């Protein structure tokens, strides 16, 4: 698979995830919290993209959510860039073991949500005034791991290089 | 594996660059209060993605309503194994009918909505999208073209306060609900005590600074009337009876919003204050939140209400 095709597919996946996040997960919120599908897609896609496109994909996904949301422009772009970079740094360590991979999805989601809360608070978002902030911080990674069971293999199928076609995760 | 996907120092430099760009964008966005270039970018992105979101919501909402309805009726299937298949089919039909009926009832209620001040100009709108993690706001399908401006109060079909418009674009607007920490509203109890409501994420915190009597559980809280909200609109119900704090006249108590914020499909935007001229061509760069004279000092950031 060519790099350009990989990038286009990853961008399409990000746009679809933003649509699902802002429509489906507005209505489906078990215990008041929804998975952060966009972070999940950034993690799943960054595993297979070259380093520079992966970092740019994280930034683009975050910027898109910033533009469609009401939080400061750049907050999610910053956090998703860091999540994509974190995925790049550690992907070689966890990709051989499915359990490690799902653990990494949860850990990176946790880092992303915590950074969103912390940096958002620094920029006046009052995230910690939200009584449900801790529940959100705890449940989003759990939900992302559960959603990752479907999303990660799907992204692997769409983005994996032809040389390793046999892999599922 | 390392040979297949070598790490790049350029990626690190790019990451650092993008982090700096993000910080600058946040600072610029906050300094310009979402106007100027950030407002233009947001408006453009919404113009591009709102049709997609509306289509997605049109697909997702009926499916979720259908699943909700089916899940609520699932217990019936255990009552009669022989009729299970029939029941499932009936459940499907019933769920679809319930969805239609609920939507019809919402629209009829909106049409029949009677506000305390009947001279107020209202605009009906459909909720088309929500925020993501930590973003409690949602998007409606009406904007400045329909007279929806920043600061306008938003009500549900029962006339109960939903929140306030924090951003307005040509054909869409963003609404912060009453439970959003950026939203505070001057309120009064049914007995006449005045105070402020402040969103807490899930519920609302009420503060009465000159309480001369206790507040009672289930007591209704209404808007007190201000440059942001018309008076006498129901906001919330107090959860517990509370006496003034010892030696003071201060009461702090929690309340739950009367409007079912997670089930909103349609809302009413009230053009308030009525004296404000509404230009159909006004864009987000021309709309601003009026200066807040009643909100606490720490609510000045962003497009908070007061």
Overview of the molecule:
The complex is a heterodimer of chains A (169) and B (306). By secondary structure, chain A is mainly α. Chain A has one domain (3-154). Chain A has helices spanning 3-27, 37-46, 51-68, 75-94, 98-122, 133-159. The mean pLDDT of chain A is 88. With 306 residues, chain B is of the alpha+beta class. Chain B is 29% helix and 22% strand. Chain B has three helices and twelve strands, in the order αααββββββββββββ. Chain B has helices at 9-31, 36-72, 84-112, and strands at residues 122-130, 138-140, 153-155, 161-168, 173-177, 184-189, 194-199, 204-208, 220-223, 234-238, 251-257, 266-270. In chain B, the strands form two sheets. A six-stranded antiparallel β-barrel of chain B has the order 1-2-5-4-3-12. A six-stranded antiparallel β-barrel of chain B has the order 6-7-8-11-10-9. In chain B, helix 2 packs across helix 3 (84-112). The relative contact order of chain B is 0.14. Mean pLDDT of chain B is 79; it is low at 276-306. At the A-B interface, helix 1, helix 3, helix 4, helix 5 and helix 6 of A face helix 1, helix 2 and strand 1 of B.
Keywords:
heterodimer, A: 169 residues, 6 helices, globular, B: 306 residues, alpha+beta, 6-stranded antiparallel β-barrel, 6-stranded antiparallel barrel
Chain-wise SSE layout:
The complex is a heterodimer of chains A (169) and B (306).
Chain A (H helix, E strand, L loop, with lengths): L2 H25 L9 H10 L4 H18 L6 H20 L3 H25 L10 H27 L10
Helix pairs in contact in A: 1-2, 1-3, 2-3, 2-4, 2-5, 2-6, 3-4, 4-5, 5-6
Chain B lengths: L8 H23 L4 H37 L11 H29 L9 E9 L7 E3 L12 E3 L5 E8 L4 E5 L6 E6 L4 E6 L4 E5 L11 E4 L10 E5 L12 E7 L8 E5 L36
Antiparallel strand pairs in B: 1-2, 1-12, 2-5, 3-4, 3-12, 4-5, 6-7, 6-9, 7-8, 8-11, 9-10, 10-11
């Amino acid at each position: 698979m060519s790099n350009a095709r990989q990038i286009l597919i990853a961008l399409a996946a990000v746009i679809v995830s933003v649509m699902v996040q802002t429509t489906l997960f507005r209505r489906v919120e078990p215990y008041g919290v929804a998975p952060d599908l966009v972070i999940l897609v950034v993690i799943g896609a960054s595993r297979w993209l070259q380093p520079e496109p992966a970092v740019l994909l994280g930034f683009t996904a975050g910027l898109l959510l910033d533009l469609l949301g009401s939080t400061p422009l750049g907050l999610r772009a910053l956090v998703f860039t860091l999540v994509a970079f974190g995925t790049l740094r550690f992907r070689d360590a966890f990709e051989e073991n499915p359990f490690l991979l799902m653990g990494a999805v949860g850990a990176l989601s946790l880092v992303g949500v915590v950074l969103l809360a912390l940096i958002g608070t620094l920029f006046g978002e009052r995230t910690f005034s939200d009584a449900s902030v801790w529940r959100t911080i705890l449940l989003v990674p759990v939900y992302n791991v559960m959603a990752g069971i479907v999303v990660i293999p799907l992204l692997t199928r769409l983005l994996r290089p032809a040389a390793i076609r046999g892999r599922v995760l | 594996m390392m040979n297949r996907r070598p790490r790049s120092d350029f990626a690190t430099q790019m990451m650092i660059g993008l982090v700096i760009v993000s910080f600058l964008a946040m600072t610029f966005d906050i300094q310009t209060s979402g106007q100027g270039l950030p407002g233009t970018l947001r408006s453009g992105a919404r113009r591009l993605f709102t049709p997609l979101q509306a289509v997605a919501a049109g697909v997702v909402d009926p499916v979720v309503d259908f699943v909700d309805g089916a899940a609520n009726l699932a217990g019936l299937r255990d009552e009669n194994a022989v009729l299970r298949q029939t029941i499932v089919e009936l459940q499907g039909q019933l769920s679809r009918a319930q969805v239609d009926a609920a939507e019809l009832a919402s629209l009829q209620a909106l049409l029949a909505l009677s506000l305390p001040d009947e001279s107020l100009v209202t605009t009906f709108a459909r909720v088309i999208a929500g925020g993501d993690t930590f973003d409690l706001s949602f998007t409606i399908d009406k904007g400045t073209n329909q007279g929806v401006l920043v600061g306008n109060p938003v009500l549900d079909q029962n006339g109960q306060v939903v929140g306030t418009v924090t951003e307005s674009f040509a054909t869409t607007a963003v609404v912060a609900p009453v439970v959003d920490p950026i939203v505070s509203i001057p309120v009064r109890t049914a007995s006449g005590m005045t105070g402020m409501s402040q969103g807490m994420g899930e519920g609302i915190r009420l503060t009465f600074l000159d309480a001369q009597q206790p507040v009672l559980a289930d007591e209704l809280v209404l808007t007190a009337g201000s440059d942001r909200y018309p008076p006498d609109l129901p906001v919330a119900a107090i959860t517990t009876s509370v006496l003034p704090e010892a030696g003071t006249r201060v009461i702090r108590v929690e309340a739950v919003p009367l409007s079912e914020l997670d089930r909103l499909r349609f809302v009413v935007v009230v053009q308030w204050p009525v004296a404000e001229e509404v230009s159909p061509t006004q864009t987000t760069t021309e709309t601003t939140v009026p200066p807040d004279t009643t909100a606490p000092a720490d609510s000045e950031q962003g497009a908070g209400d007061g």
